[in-house]
Records
---
Amino acid sequence: MLKDTGERLLPDQQRDELLYAEHLARYRFAAQFARDRAILDAGSGEGYGAAILAAAGAASVVGLDIDEEIVQHAAEKYGLDFVRGDVSELPFDEGRFDLVTCFETIEHVGAAARAVSEFRRVLTPEGLLVISTPNSKEYLVENEFHEREYTPEEFDELLAAAFPQRLRLYQQNWLLSAVLDERELAAADPAQLLDVEVSKAAAVEPGGELYSVVVCGGHAGGLRQVAVATGVFEAQRLGSEVDAWQDRAAKAEELLAPWQERAEKAEQLLAPWQERAEKAEQLLAPWQDRAELAERQRQEWELRATGREHQLEAMERSLSWRITRPLRALKAFVSR
């Protein structure tokens, strides 16, 4: 079994998570372009997405991922063509594919502009790129595998260098309630479509979407020939906004834990220094007392030596002199 590192979706282990529905919705959206096309799924991960595209009638599907272990797993599980490679240096000839999909991958890539240029290179002149990335203004989960996250404007600027035609779409999660019959209620196969009507009662203004999804064409007018179905919904048993915030809160707590541990260690290191300071103050006090006593004795002998006994008598009647009398007696005893 593949290990869940947080870098990519593993359907068998994350089927009841909202994350699973998010990924399925993107591939289901792209599947409308799949029929009779040669497809590259760049950043194919576990392989479930390439399988969805193949089932939608693709002429051929090649999945590409940088991890050799996951490439082997995908090939064995789905029986499709998966190769190891870097999206910024694609190992394919120019014009090889009619459609390239790249979902939640570009933010993992340091040379993102180079990767977008590579997608353009391996596409036919009429080919399409369907690509997505989190909106950095709304996606608050800290992901150690992300090289850079993009605002929708930054993402559009990245794509514009290679793709003059771009159709910007928006992916958002919604709390969905449905009335279903017995068969539909028991369904758990994402490939099994339900005959339901969906409407929505909440609005999100553009720019507030969680993910940017963009359909890119390589030449002017190319996208006008594409009928885009934007209403793709995926409902999960736990797939609600509540679950999304719970996931985000749990991840925030995970990020907080090491800082709490560092604070506790700092306090532990500080404690002995505080203890040493307190001991130093305790050791300093008697030396200060002895210094004050010595100073008073010096003053006493100076007055006696100069014949100013009246000043000496005034000093001996003072409160401070009377208070320090036990210390002088102790010093006299110790010096014997």
---
Amino acid sequence: MISLGLGTLVGGNGSSFGGFSAEYQAILTAGSGFTRPSSAEQTIQNKLIEDLKTAGIWAKLDAFYMFANNISTDSTGAFARINWKTPTANYGTAQGSGLPPISAKNGFTGNGTAGINLNYPHFSGTNFANPNGSIGVYYGTVQASTAAISTGAGGSRIRSGSSSSVTSSVITLTATANSFVHINRTSAAITAYLNGSSTGTSASLQPWATTDTSNFFIFWNGTSYGSSQIRVAFIGGNLAAESATFNTLIQNYITSVNAL
């Protein structure tokens, strides 16, 4: 449900309209110098935020990046690299040979030489903390055994078709195309979720890698670059109970954007 507001904003197509949440207005303000989504897509993005708030997910996120939008005129994905949770900080910048390519509705696709530095240091948030933590991505296409999201020192990571971990506790999952992958750690276990359903749990918890204060990256794991397609990325707290709902909301968003 879209909340009622008094502000008036200028959409990507030049039309004026209002009624967005304060959170989404802040995102649009941060992207005022970029090509922004159309008014129809802005309504879809605002609804996603409202739904995440209603589900109790938004409050547990420290960083949230929506790479998949319908902007086809910006080859750098400038608007897509805004951290929705803190639009004035943690802006994604080029890593390696430059920015990976982005395509409308699909997000960024790794090319094996470029990544995105989220400029978000490990353990810098309020929810991703001892003992809980979550990281996740929505895959478009999947290239086996390559980095999706990772700290530069590898303390927390997701790799497609290979070991994935929050800190040094490792669990294996097999990611598939068009899927939402969520790795969740609590004081008791680390659990992998694929499209909202648990794929396995490891109770072999290692100490937190508190000395790893390197930034989180998309595609870069400190030694090599991945080549999967990433449409969404997030960092947050314990979201085990919300994983199925989180998946549904992200899948609904992707479907809505692809229908534009």
---
Amino acid sequence: MEKRVKSLRLLSLCVLAIIIAVFSAGELRAEFPDRNITVLVAWAPGAASDISTRAIAIGAEKYLGKRLMIENKGGAAGTVALSVLANAAPDGYTLCSTPNISFVDTPLMQKVSFRPLASFTPIIGHSLAAHTALIVQSDAPWKTFKDFIEYAKKNPGKIKYSSAGVGSGMHVCMEVIARKEGIKWVHVPYKGGAPATTALLGGHVDACSAGIGWQIHAEAGSVRSLADHGKTRCPDYPEVPTLWEMGYGITNDTIHLIAGPAGLPVEVVKKLEEAFKRGMETPDFKAAQKKLYLDPVCLDSTACEKHLKERWVRVEEILKNAGIITEAATKPQ
């Protein structure tokens, strides 16, 4: 009898321990986050991804009650940081900020260590860079896109151009042009749009297929835009033609995203999604968008996932038609 009583007491203690553990786990989940969150920015300091991420973090931190620790990890058009994210614990404490091209365009063109459409949980799309562009120094001999193309055709291998990296949307645009026009030029990739533009300003390259923000230098009189990568002309530079209207069949609709690793709990995704939406409402973020010439856009987790899947199909077709790839370098799933 005494042994039976002891057994029942032991069983009761075990059941009580399990109940406490279950409730404790629930409380921990409800209290996310209980420590600071690391946000990897997949581009160099000063790039649009960097500045916009630091701006959106201000409002997000106030909502979450914890710091967002920004860590720049540029390289390979954003895929270096995404490789780190793919192997992070799915707990919401490691995130990555990078444009859609890092998930789609680059993996289509080169092998990466992650599954572009399966290794991540998109959280929010917060900014649209509709008007990246081909730019040259203001005193360059080419006054128009036509002048530039004619020179490049007559002087194979002489034009050196910079971009934000191999596989970036800006690089793809130049490869589509080269393929259609039969041009040979030299691509000089950098770890982000800012250093790529700096290379042009310093005279290290002849042209730059520039990320958003080139307008600042145009306003200062340092550069001239020859072609816009948007589908419609930039309202501030209506005289600059787009690649789309000139028949190249390509646009660079770059959307800046924040994502976590695959398998993030639904409640964590919702908490982060709401935090970043709050961050988008702050004067700091709106000022950063204006400074960077970014257009407002807000895609929640579900919309982000749909966007990336649709972009994969569209960009894969563009690259195949342009002869840049024969098949995807990386499988999406």
